[in-house]
Please model this.
Amino acid sequence: RVKQDSRNSYCFFTPAMQEHSARTLALASALKLALARNELHLVYQPQIALEDGRVVGAEALLRWHSAQWGAVSPAEFIPIAESGGLIVPIGEWVLRTAMAQLVAWRAQGLPPLRIAVNLSAVQFNQVELPALVSRVLQETGARADELELELTEAATMKNPQAAAAQLQRLGELGVRLAIDDFGTGHSSLSYLKRFFLHALKIDQSFVRDIETDADDQAITGAIVDLARSLGLATVAEGVESAEQLAFLRARGCTHVQGYYFSRPLPPEQFHTFVQRSEREGVRAA
Ligand code: C2E
Ligand code: MG
Ligand code: MG
Ligand code: MG
Model:
């Protein structure tokens, strides 16, 4: 990582930093070929409604298995895709693949589900985004209310007025809209009120120590109350234990996702997970 606050200090490269930037460059050029080489795929992490303990759908998460580099984490390659202009074609592929998968599950007789797709700020700020979303829905046969788009606070807060207009256009298509990693960026609460939104996702950094950390409890409680008063759902991310779940449930959080229920799964395993949950209930029940 390159130091950002180096205005008053000398900038120098350590061997580790050189290696890092060489790797970044190499990954950037490998990523250009990843789509054509079929190296990208999606995994699906179940999201559960606490109201009835049922699977409402999944968050689609991108995976890259590079022939050269092996498995590369999205935390590493998404920023590379964003700065290299690749996030737009990759993001379109993600949207199309997720919606096609959803329609396939519907055809296979799974109960109604919705899929959440992550959008990077670059995608969100594209004028063409609403038209793209509507085209993908039409081409795949997915319904708008089967799609939830997740965006970050950073994507909306750079230009809140433009973001409000974009959210409005997307919302009018009938898709659901969620703010991801809520509480880790800078949200203006006054804009939140004006944004066309359906859910806030509570970042996993607040969930991790929620049984013991009074600050995390206070922050999570405040987010749940804020969301409820704005008529929004809350999705807690990174739920790994029964104790975390118990706290979130008692505090009024509406939805959860995390390893306690399931890791992100390949499509066939997600299918099985939903069928088994319908029969036996999920762990939450
Ligand atoms: P995110 O959208 O906040 O996704 C949640 C991350 O938490 C995922 O990491 C997921 O695998 C992980 N996670 C889920 N449950 C647990 C848990 O119980 N414990 C812990 N410790 N982690 C859990 P992943 O898949 O590595 O993705 C990292 C980030 O990369 C995502 O954060 C998202 O910002 C980005 N990303 C992933 N797929 C896409 C995509 O298709 N498009 C865009 N633009 N970004 C994506
Ligand atoms: Mg997300
Ligand atoms: Mg998140
Ligand atoms: Mg995250």
